[in-house]
Amino acid sequence: MTSPVLVLLDHAADGALRPSAAELVTLARPLAGDGGVLGAWVGDGPGPDALAVLAAHGVAAVHAVRPDADPALSAVTAEAVTAVLGATGAGLVLIPSTFEGKEVAAHLAASTGAGVVTDADGVQLQDGVPVASKTVLAGTWTTRCSVVGAPAVVTVKANAVPAEPVAAPREPVVVEHELTVSPAARRVELVERTERAASDRPDLSGAQVVVVGGRGTEGDFGPIEELADLLGAAVGATRVATDEGWIAKEAQIGQTGVTVTPRLYIGAGVSGAVHHRGGMQAAGTIVAVNSDPDAPIFEIADFGVVGDLFTVLPQATAELRRLLG
Predict the structure, then answer these.
(1) How many other C-beta atoms can be found within 10 angstroms of the C-beta atom of residue 244?
(2) What is the per-residue pLDDT across 201-247, written as a single tens digit (0 to 9) for each?
(3) If we measure between CA atoms, which residue out of 173, 175, 164 comes closest to residue 56?
(4) Which of 27, 54, 171, 324 could disulfide-pair with 59, CB 3.0 to 4.6 Å?
(5) Beta bridge partners of 216
(6) Nearest-CA neighbor of 118 among 131, 105, 128?
């Protein structure tokens, strides 16, 4: 591949880069041609802290696009990325595989004719063509998907690759763009925004460690949350747990909830129904705790404990606390 690779730099409203930015830049480096890795930043330009992170991870240039409409709307972001594509000639675009990111990818496909692969867990070049790997059908199949045309758009799951800095950081060039958004992108208006309550726990979709409770908790997530806080983990749940109102809907993992790809998944009182497995089966290491030895989750678990979660989890938490001092 001889063209540069463009990475959509996901960031918070205060300008702080989200972890996906460094991960995608790391993934992009061996795929990029002579033009290197380029970043697309939509909104007010990146600050010194963000630029320092991007320099450490080898970004050659950041294209900061300031649209005259709300960049929180996916159609607006897609038009900004389309403008950067036209200015740079990038042949591959990497986007975080969030709900918003996949909407942006769909808009890009419609406006540029790009081929799109969503929910990839890796991208490699094969004969100069980007080939993305992804699991399908609730994690039962691993596939490889190539995009033979240009540009190719791939949304990549969180934690697909660990972020790794380069040996010789170089401050990226910042190229600023002003964008007049089309009438089509203005058809949707953001009328209200409600911030989630602050939490010390990491975001569920991008967390490296996730502790999950299911029907076996019987509504008591105390042991789940205690272990999660000790590990600095996010707390997730099965559909049964959220349907029962034991925990907020945002914690639901599965085909109709959040897809997680942590390095460590701990499921307690989780049966491992197909719906749930579709959202967590790509986890690096799966630990299951369930009193039912025939629970389906044991079929995919790397480590399994047959026992009552109200006995096993407090013991595990106490031992970890002792080891951590």
Answers:
(1) 14
(2) 888 988 999 999 999 999 899 999 999 999 999 999 999 998 888 89
(3) 164
(4) 54
(5) none
(6) 105
